[in-house]
Design brief:
Elements lengths: L1 E4 L2 E3 L49 E4 L14 E4 L8 E4 L2 E9 H6 L2 E5 L5 E5 L11 E11 L2 E15 L6 H10 L36 H4 L16
Parallel strand pairs: 6-10
Antiparallel strand pairs: 1-2, 3-4, 5-6, 7-8, 9-10
Length: about 240
């Protein structure tokens, strides 16, 4: 109780500094040397966890009773949640794995043979047959080379391959003529005689996307009424 003024008293509560609000004081002679009367000590403990093949990215493992222990309370639990790290080559989608494979235009037209290292350090050979053409953004798959199923590791998903074709910046004109002679000719309409030749340039990134809107307004919309009818409707004078 604190007197604030004549006839005015103030009452406040605070935690006891001797017992820390526990309502019990342990004499110094009876205090434990390890905890110094606090009844708890800090301890380091190593916990091992086994991550099964194919476990989901949000997999959780609970160690019951291995958390903090406080006098008069039940021991807490330790909850460990698995977080997947990003991989430079593969992206996981459940049981399936996806990857992007960059190939050049020669491989796309004439065939390819590439080696891909798996997550378990095996080397897979991805190849196409002669005459098979890979187009931009084509998607192929290899069954049984995805992620193992959780609790059924011998049942694996698919490895999905997304092809990205890279083209050279330019080629020799003589080579271009040879390629044109070898490749199938496109069926294109004839160019009209009155056509105009234009110069094709690299796009500068500036454009009016979505169309240009006018900044001018119509005089009719601005005025309250039709010209000659200012002030609203008027009566004919006799």
């Amino acid at each position: 109780m604190v007197q604030m003024g004549p006839g005015m008293m103030s009452q406040s509560q605070e935690v006891c500094g001797e017992c820390d609000g526990k309502g019990e004081i342990i004499p110094p002679s009876a205090r434990c040397k390890a905890c110094k009367g606090k009844r708890t000590t800090k301890e380091k403990k190593v916990i091992e966890i086994m991550v099964d093949k194919g476990c989901p990215s949000d997999y959780r493992k609970v160690f019951y009773g291995e958390g903090d222990h406080e006098p008069g309370k039940e021991p807490g639990d330790i909850v460990i949640q698995v977080e997947e790290k990003e991989h430079a080559t593969f992206q996981r989608h459940g049981r399936d794995l996806t990857m992007r494979l960059d190939i050049d235009v020669c491989e796309a037209l004439c065939g390819l043979k590439r080696s891909v290292k798996t997550l378990d350090n095996r080397n897979l050979v991805i190849s196409t047959t002669p005459g098979e053409v890979i187009k931009q953004a084509d998607i192929k798959m290899v069954k049984g080379e995805g992620m193992p199923t959780h609790k059924d590791p011998f049942n694996k998903g698919k490895l999905i391959v997304l092809f990205n074709i890279t083209y050279p910046d330019k080629i020799d004109p003589a080579t271009a003529k040879k390629l044109y002679a070898l490749l199938p000719k496109p069926n294109l309409p004839a160019v009209p005689k009155d056509s105009e030749e234009v110069h094709l340039e690299i796009f500068d990134g500036e454009a009016t996307w979505g169309g240009e809107k006018t900044t001018d307004t119509d005089d009719y919309e601005e005025s309250a009424g039709h010209p000659g009818m200012q002030g609203g409707p008027q009566c004919k004078q006799m």
